[in-house]
Amino acid sequence: MLKHYWHIAWRQWHSSSTFALLNLVGLAAGLTVALLIGLWISDEVFFDHYFPSHGCIVKVMTTQPTAAGLVTTDHLPPALIGELRTNHGRFFRHLAIVWPNFPHVLAAGERQITASGQWAEPEWPEILALHMICGSRKSLGDPSSVLIDRTTALALFGDSKGTDAMGRTIRVDNAIDVKIAGVYEDLPDNTSFAGTHVLLAWKKASEEMPWFRDAMNDWGTVGFWIFGELNDPGVATAASADIAGIFRGRSKDAKETLSLYPMDRWHLYSEFDNGVSSTGRVRLVLLFAFIGLFVLLLASINFMNLATARSERHARVVGIRKTLGASRLQLVAQFLTESVLLSMLGLIIAIGVAQLSLPLFNRLAAKDLALPYAQPLFWLVSVGFALLTGLFSGIYPAFYLSRFRPAFTLRMAGSRGAHYTRRALTILQFTISAGLIVATAVVYRQVAYARGRPAGYERDGLLAVRMKTTDIYSAPYDVFREELLRSGAVADMAESSDATTGKPELSTESISWPGKDPSTKPQLVHIDVTHDFGRTIGWTMIAGRDFSRVYHTDSNAVLLNESAGRLIGWRDPIGRFIRIGDQDCRVIGVVRNMVMGSPYDPVPATLISLDYKFVNYITIRLNPAISPGVAINRIRAVFKRFDPHAPFEFAYLADDYSRKFAAESQLGSLSVFFAGLAIGISCLGLYGLAAFMIERRRKEVAIRRTLGAGIPQLCGLLATGFLTPVLISQFIAIPIAAVAMQSWLQSYAYRTNISPWIFAGASGLSILIAMLTIGFRTLKSARANPVEGLRLE
After folding, report:
1. Which is the most buried residue in 28, 669, 685, 715, by most CB within 10 A?
2. How confident is the model at residue 14 (pLDDT cuts 50, 70, 90)?
3. H-helix segments, 643-785
4. What gap in Å lies between CA 81 and CA 79, rounded to an integer?
5. CA geometry: angle at 415 spanning 413 and 420, to 5°?
6. What is the C-alpha to C-alpha distance for residues 293 and 289, in angstroms, rounded to an integer?
7. CA atoms within 13 A on the CB side of 244
8. Per residue in 248-287, pLDDT tens?
9. Strands 57-66, 69-73: parallel, antiparallel or unpaired by DSSP?
């Protein structure tokens, strides 16, 4: 029976090869999009599943009330780990405290590299269950030991297997010597700790850095991560409830609440709203899932449209087969077999196209995806999806055509019901396409709007250098700055505790001022800078003055940004005092808000202090009179003298700032990619429908030409029937897209408005594409020799 259906399907495709080809291309395009989006979604959904115990791994979080609502953070005091082990350890298989990723200079002989790594307790590699190439995960119990990944072993020793690195000694930050006790596999990109190349023993940090050791018993020092591996995922709720009041138990004034944040939510639900992780990257996953379904729906609509458009030819076949005794069930099976076979052919083509498209798709999505040919689940899902697509595409034509009565089908000249169905499906196609055009335009408008936001400083010509070794930390600031200026490559230079384009952490330290409500605990950003910072980055003073070497009292002074001024509420803050900890600091100036974190978020209230001790970044403004290449070489020579044990590495602040738009830019690029495919699929169906319907009206066209109708009149007559559904689709798409994109924009505090020109442009583009699609076919038919049209009859 299947063989018989195959022969019938083959004859149908052969007799109308154009329509079969349009169907095949449309289905293949839809399945290609489904494959690519499926790979992307799989990578997102299974983020962190590389770790065997991902379902049991948790991060300890703290939530505290502020004037802006509940604020949740993972920055904790190290003293908390002892309390968790002593009084709450029954819930955990492992607990570990970790100092967040930090760039370290690793040296082996003359070879130096910079690698990001963590100071971690011995149980941390056990929690992650690192895949060891050689050595033991338990090695961090020895303070003189270190674990490195395969990439670091290759960079330091040219050792791709890792075995040659075992037992070798490396120097870290030109301060400590440690022995390699294990080499682990690189952590994949779809993990939260990708790029962690080295793990250093926690005990070594305590031995070498007094502040590290002192912090272990200090409940006021924050900035550390604490992770745990639960005995069982089912105890997460009970464990969270058990640890919730630890801070309140220590102090009656404490309002912080602790909770456990499961690893399986870190990636997709990373944004906390009033203490709840309710959203995050999951929005993108849902968005692209809907896009994939819509594009696949468009391909299925193409099949339905073309199948019902050919109903006259199919109807006669159905009538003859029914007369010969075929049952309706057999006819339904025949039509469904035809659509499923076409869908399976489309899947084969889609896999090939997806493989060829992956390099481009990976660039757009900033991923490293590959088709998992060796996984049975991939084939099961792909074939299952193609089967469902084929059944969905063919189910309406199958039941529609199989219900015809033999006498009716043998004299059938067309069906009004089929005509309305095709119009409805065409409207749905172009509604989806127009909606995707609007969405793409709004995404790009939002990115452009944020890019044009005043940053509060001059990014062009600025370099940032992360301080890594004790050499550069101990270099005399004035001498180092003078050498850079003397090189002629530098217009100015300064140091700061935070990167100018980085996201500084909110401070929870005790800050008060006259008139402050004692029941509130405001959160502000606190940045330390040197004297020349403001002049180097080019910030704008809007009140008072900048730090100056002329005033020795500036060591006890502070600057506010505009947000801090509004938070405090003083009309004129200059000369007034703010108490930071146990020190009264005089406000000497107010600077314009600087965009350091996300360009889409409000600028947080910020205090800026003068301090040469707690600095981590060097900011350099290049001399515009010298080419950047020459300037960099001169700067490198100066750094080599002051920081000889570290490679000179820098970042352009303009590039760092541009990377803040990466996620939205990727969304825009992928939207263009998928919207283009959606429009292409819609146009394939429209072209096939136009070709078929115009073919049916060839006699009418010939008669009208014979009676004197002109080509413009005929083109208008033929095109009107196809443009009407397209016009109707615009009135449906615009309000739906407006509501959806307005909702999307609400997730950004700094957002653009939706201009009416976006909708006008989207509608105009949709109509233009539709006109171009059917224009060639209608013009060709209108210009045909009428004698040929009548001869065919």
Report:
1. 685
2. very low
3. 653-658, 662-696, 698-706, 711-745, 756-782
4. 6
5. 145
6. 6
7. 8
8. 777 666 778 899 999 999 999 988 877 788 888 888 888 8
9. antiparallel
Classify the C-alpha dihedral 401-404-407-408 as positive or negative: negative
pLDDT one-digit tens code per residue, 732-762: 888 888 888 888 888 777 888 888 888 888 8
DSSP calls for 525-542 = EEEEE-TTHHHHHT--EE
Q: Which residues have CB under 8 Å from 106's CB, separation 6+?
A: 112, 113, 114, 115, 148, 152, 156, 170, 171, 172, 198
**CB neighbour class for 454 (10 Å; exposed up to 12, middle 13-18, buried from 19):** exposed
For residue 32, what pLDDT is reported? 87
pLDDT of 10 over the 80 cut: no
Residues found in the chain: 793
pLDDT in tens, 313-362: 555 566 655 565 556 566 666 677 777 777 788 888 889 988 998 988 88
Task: Identify which has the larger pLDDT, 783 or 667.
Answer: 667
Residue of 149, 128, 121 lying closest to 52 (CA atoms): 128
Q: CB–CB of 130/156 below 8 Å?
A: no
Say how far residue 406 (Cα) sits from the centre of its chain: 57
Identify the pLDDT of residue 124.
Answer: 96
What is the rounded end-to-end Cα distance, in angstroms, of the chain? 37
Alpha-carbon Rg of the chain, whole angstroms?
34
**What is the 3-class SS of 337-400, one letter each residue?**
HHHHHHHHHHHHHHHHHHHHHHHHHHHHHCCCCCCCCCCHHHHHHHHHHHHHHHHHHHHHHHHH
What are the angstrom distances between the C-alpha of 443 and each of 365, 367, 431, 436, 600?
15, 20, 18, 11, 13
Strand partners, 105: 114
524-529 and 606-610 strand pairing: parallel
User: Are the beta carbons of 628 and 490 closer than 8 angstroms?
Assistant: no
Of 84, 104, 99, residue with least CA distance to 213: 99
**Nearest C-alpha neighbor of 646 from the set 26, 193, 172, 3:** 172
Residue 90 burial class via C-beta count within 10 angstroms: exposed 0-12, middle 13-18, buried 19 and up: exposed
What pLDDT sits at residue 410? 47
Task: Say how far apart CA 781 and CA 788 lie, in whole Å.
Answer: 11
| CA 37 to the chain's CA centroid | 13
Residue 155 DSSP class = H
Question: What are 69's strand-pairing partners?
Answer: 66
Q: What is the pLDDT of residue 116?
A: 93
> Which 8-state DSSP code applies to residue 569?
T
28, 349 Cβ separation under 8 angstroms = yes
pTM: 0.81
CA distance 773 to 755: 28
Spatial distance between the Cα atoms of 394 and 402, rounded to a whole number of angstroms: 12
CA-nearest of 501, 551, 493 to 527 is 501
- What confidence tens digit (pLDDT) does each residue in 18-47 have? 566 667 777 788 888 888 888 999 999 999
Helices (H) and strands (E) in the chain, counts: 27, 25
Indicate if the pLDDT at residue 184 is higher than 90: yes
71 versus 131: which is more confidently predicted? Answer: 131
d(CA 178, CA 142): 10
What mean pLDDT value characterizes the chain?
A: 82
